[in-house]
Amino acid sequence: MLDVLPPDSIGLVEPKFHTFDSPIALDCGRILPRYKLIYETYGNLNKESSNAILVCHALSSDHHAAGYHTLQDKKPGWWETCIGPGKPIDTNRFFVVSPNNLGGCKGSTGPTSINPDTNKPYGPDFPIVTVHDWVKTQARLGDILGISQWAAVIGGSLGGMQALQWAIDYPKQLRHCVVIAAAPRLTAQNIAFNEVARQAILNDPEFYAGHYYQHNAIPRQGLMLARMLGHITYLSDTAMRKKFGRDLREGKINFGFDVEFQVESYLRYQGMSFVDRFDANTYLLMTKALDYFDPAYKFDDNLAKALAQVYAKFLVISFTSDWRFSPARSREIVKALLANKKLVSYAEIKAHDGHDAFLMPIQKYLQTFKMYMQQIEL
Amino acid sequence: MLDVLPPDSIGLVEPKFHTFDSPIALDCGRILPRYKLIYETYGNLNKESSNAILVCHALSSDHHAAGYHTLQDKKPGWWETCIGPGKPIDTNRFFVVSPNNLGGCKGSTGPTSINPDTNKPYGPDFPIVTVHDWVKTQARLGDILGISQWAAVIGGSLGGMQALQWAIDYPKQLRHCVVIAAAPRLTAQNIAFNEVARQAILNDPEFYAGHYYQHNAIPRQGLMLARMLGHITYLSDTAMRKKFGRDLREGKINFGFDVEFQVESYLRYQGMSFVDRFDANTYLLMTKALDYFDPAYKFDDNLAKALAQVYAKFLVISFTSDWRFSPARSREIVKALLANKKLVSYAEIKAHDGHDAFLMPIQKYLQTFKMYMQQIEL
Fold first, then answer.
1. Quick check: B292 and A232 CB within 8 A?
2. What mean pLDDT comes out for the span B40-55?
3. What is the pLDDT of residues B62-108, one digit of tens each?
4. Which one of B60, B318, B355, B356 is the catalytic residue?
5. pLDDT at B351 over 80
6. For A170, which DSSP code?
7. A40 within 8 A of A98, measured Cβ to Cβ
8. DSSP letters along A296-330, please?
9. In a mutagenesis test of the B interface, which of A199, A236, A282, A332 is the best target, namely the one with the most B β-carbons within 10 Å?
10. pLDDT at B1 > cutoff 80
11. Cβ(B13)–Cβ(B67) under 8 Å?
């Protein structure tokens, strides 16, 4: 429990909702007649509505990006390192909007929501959504909030992919695009990891073809395995070595299959706690959105062509030890922008933390990010 | 079906057995009163018994390293690229011994064998074995075959770890040690991958705490997931890209969870076919043997100390794109040997195939390996 809120935190925040009553046509060919988005905002929108920042979240995150919901919260929002007064996304200067994506499980319409056609949870009948779909729903949210142009759209990992898609789909509606620890599309290896995670969930006997809610069940093992596997790809080999090495929990080998090495204990804990806070159907949807993301696909696999019409200035950041989306993947984006003579700043941050580095308080990273944000004109 | 056997193959081979009736004390503290090893031999032992080569297998391999069991075989043994007349391990010159490890599921005593105490399969009651235990059983097999000193002990991956352990445990009983695509011990990341694989098996409802044989069940999903995950770590990102890229099986996205990308199809096939040929309890044992392998542990974590007494000359080979056991891990072995002024040849082979490269017909690799083997005096 917090006695006093940290002075560099935005402090207590409260989620907001908006229900969209006009239907939305999705990439998969289906139409959602209505849907709700949950979101948070930090800071104040200025008179000119020129200081709005859209923050897009990654695979298993949500709208709660900064601050605390109550003084009893154990943790602040997921990007507390980057959002707040005096931080890179400075809430003294910017008005930050952070939605939970469509298909999510934290308040926006998704598989756990009631399908008005059946009065039961959508479950596996919820349509598969794409990054392009998300960007469309986020644009509608901007309309509702009176934001005709974002000062910047920003995201890390899958969030960075949304920022990139924004620059392609609504070029004039953002002045800056910040793409952190992302890639222009997944490799076969990335897809392979997602596929193992999906198979773990889909084949869990408690999954009931996605209708586990009605069976009062949770595909606990499948979701746990998916999360354990995810965690391996979020951390670098070096980060894992530094964190755990070959340390044994009881100081000795027991010749059994219970937890022996600290890294096993960490992974099991991460896996088990994820089950209590995330929905398996949403996890499946999110991995598919990742797999499908490929803005160059419609442009003869030519990313430069896909980015030819972007208007935003870019900041692209990668981390040396990120092997999920390595610096080489970020450089693909940078090269495609340069091929179009677009303005792009690129920083490759030396960090041992792997993909998770984008969430970490790494000084050079925060400095670079902050300096870029400071020069954004309002 | 083969009309004619390839001329550079050892041809038709037949497994042999030996039952060891003297008890063996294992690292875990348990004693096996008797056990059987299945093995194959290729070539002929010379009069002086000076041309014997021991080949040690990796995680999911077995004693069938070269040649064919019948003309109907679809595939030869797992190391046909390296073992045969005129090949690196030249059967015109050497007498090759290739056993299935204790705890295996291909004929050596293991979890699927009948426990004489209960007249039921050992299942989860089979003791956890270590690389050190394996080397001990292999030394006994050498005794039976009249081999007091191996010309070389050779292995790739987990097999390379056995070769390294041989040089430490029985220094005078091998003249050469060939360690390919191995590491002196696993990293936290390596252990993490093994742990996810184990959790997939252990939590499969068809696992029945390891007693699935009695329930006429197989922990199919768990073993499939373990194998899918394994395969990702065996291939490099580049190899996967070259093999599959983002190719779609039906040329289009279907917005569903059936196979869409070729890489998904490949992984599912690999996973499913593995279930038909491998035992889950054995898989669990093998991953533990990997995790526990750490010859430096007893020597203050100092690998050079662990290798101070080795007598064999070494060939160490690594592959540039192997991220399971990267070249850096092989160089740890090389450095520790050099610190002791031991004779070691080291080759870092440029290859895109990832960890699996040690099984592949890569010309530079086969040439290097062959040249080293040719200079072994008999």
1. no
2. 98
3. 999 999 999 999 999 999 999 999 999 999 999 999 999 999 999 99
4. B355
5. yes
6. S
7. yes
8. TGGGTT-HHHHTTT--SEEEEEEETT-SSS-HHHH
9. A199
10. no
11. yes
Of the pLDDT bands very low, low, confident and very high (cuts 50, 70, 90), residue B3 is confident
Partner B contacted by A246 (CB < 8 A): yes
Chain B partners of A240 at a C-beta cutoff of 8 Å?
A: 187-189, 192
Label the pairing between strands B313-319 and A83-84: unpaired
Give the max Cα distance, chain A. Answer: 67
Q: Are strands A89-90 and A95-99 parallel, antiparallel or unpaired?
A: unpaired
Provide the shortest C-alpha distance from residue B215 to chain A (in Å): 17
Whether B9 is catalytic is: no
> Which pLDDT does position A5 carry in this prediction?
86
Answer yes or no: is the ipTM higher than 0.85: yes
Residue B89, SS3 per DSSP = strand
Residue type, B68: Y
E strands in chain B: 16-20, 24-25, 31-32, 35-42, 52-56, 83-84, 89-90, 95-99, 114-115, 120-121, 152-156, 176-180, 313-319, 344-349
Q: Which of B132, B186, B196 to substitute to test the interface with A, most A CBs within 10 Å? A: B196
Query: What pLDDT shows up at residue A136?
Result: 98
Residues of A classed as catalytic = 157, 322, 355
Q: What is the pLDDT of residue A1?
A: 61
Low-confidence ranges of chain A (pLDDT < 70): 1
Average pLDDT, chain B: 96
Q: How big is the A-B interface in CB pairs under 8 Å?
A: 145
Alpha-carbon distance B211 to B207, whole Å?
7
Given a contact cutoff of 8 angstroms between Cβ atoms, the answer to whether A195 and A281 are in contact is: no
Q: Where are the beta strands (DSSP E) in A100-193?
A: 114-115, 120-121, 152-156, 176-180
C-alpha distance from B105 to closest chain A C-alpha (Å): 19
